[in-house]
Write a structure and sequence with these properties.
about 425 residues; alpha/beta; UDP-n-acetylglucosamine1-carboxyvinyl-transferase, Chain; 2 domains; four-stranded mixed β-sheet; 24 strands
Amino acid sequence: MTSIKVTPGKLQGELRIPPSKSYTHRAVILASIADGTSTIKNPLLGRDTMASIRACQALGVKIEVGANTVEIKGPGPNTAPRNIIDVENSGTTLRFMTAISALIPSGHTVLTGDSSIRKRPMQPLLDALAQVGVTCWSTQLTGTAPIVVSGGGIRGGVANIDGSISSQFASSLIVSCLRAHGKTEVHLIGDSVSRPYIDATLEITKRFGGSVENPRTGTFLIPANQNISPTNIEIPADLSSAALISACTVMTDSQVTFKGIDLTLPQADVRIIEILKCLGVQIEFDAARTKLVVTNDGALNGGTFDLHDCPDLTPVIAVLALRGTRVTRISRIEHTRFKETDRISILAQELPKTGAKVTEYPDGLKIQPPSSIQPCELDAHDDHRLFMAFCAAAMAASAPCIIRGLETIDVSYPSFINDLASIGATFEVMNK
C-alpha cells in the first residue's frame, strides 16, 4: 500500500463534493431492469460503482460509460454470465447483484470478490431469497462469497429478512422483487440498521416508476412483475464524502464552502450537520444556491452519539473526538464490524497512536482526547473511509504524520487528495 505524509495546516476555499456512491449503485441497477434507455447524469465512477456496472454488463445489460454520464439500455438481466462476477471490494454490488442475478431466464451466476468481501455476511439475504423461490448458496457453506445463484426468476411470496447486519439485504430484495412473478411481502426482523439507506432505495425506485408500499415500519409490499420506466436521473452530492472533508475543515480550524449540496434526497449521513452543530461547529446552509459552509475555530464539545442509522460516520466522529474537550462515546455501531474492515477494532488499534485513550466495546468506542494530536503513522487497513478520516486527524497533529492506504480512495472519492490540495492541504507520496 502507498503511504503519504500529511503536513498540518489550514484550509480555505470552495469544493464540489463528488456524487453519491449509494445513489449511483442504485440508479445503475434500476436502469438495468428498466424497460428502455436511461441516462444517469453526474455518476460516481469509482472502483465500487464500476464493479456494479461491470456486473450488470456481465448479465447482458448494454451500458455505455461517458465522461459524466452512464447510458443504460434495459430491460435486463437477460443472460447468464460467461465468467465469475468479481465485485472486488464492493459489498453493495455483492448484495444487490446476488438478488438481481436470480432474474436471468436460465443458468447460474457465481459472485465473489476480494479477501474482505469473502468475509462479509450473506446468509440473511440467501435465506430471504430462498423464501421467495430462488435457489442460491454459499460455495463454502459459510454464508459468505463465493455465492451461486440459479436463474429462472423470482416467484414472490413472503420473505422475512434479518436487518441487524446490513440494510443492503432488504434493499436488494426490494429492487429485485419489482420483477418477481408474484407479489412479494418483505418483513424486516431484528434490530434493523441503517434505515435511511432503505429510504434512499424506496425514493429512487419511485423515480423509476416502481411501486413499493410501506404500510408499517419494517414491512414492504411489492406488486408483481412491474414495468420499470427508463429515467434520466442526476446523482446528488455524496454527504458521506462531505462529512470527511468537513472533518478536515473542523480539525484544522478552517472554513470551507461545499457546492452542489442537495438535501432533498434521503441520505443517512445528512446527520453530520446535526452532529457538527452539537460539537460547536458553525454551519450555514443555503438551499437556493445548494451551498453548505462549515467553519470552526477551537476545540469541540465531545458527547455521546448513536450512529445506528449512519454507521459510515463512525470514522469521522472518532477522529473529531480527538479535538474534544471531554470524552466522546460512539454507540450502537456493532454492524460496522462487517464493513470493509472491523472499523471498531481498527479505530481502537490506531487512534491511541495519536495520544488518545480508546476503549473498545462490542457496539462502539469511548475516546478520551489527547492534549494534542501526536505525530504518528496510521494504517487504514485497506479501508477507504478510515484512510480519509486518518488524513483529517493528521492535518491537526503537532507535526507531519504518515498515513498508509492511498490506493483506497478510488473506492468512493478518487479526487480526495487533489480536492484537499486545491484548498491548501499539503501531501507528499512516500512510497508504492
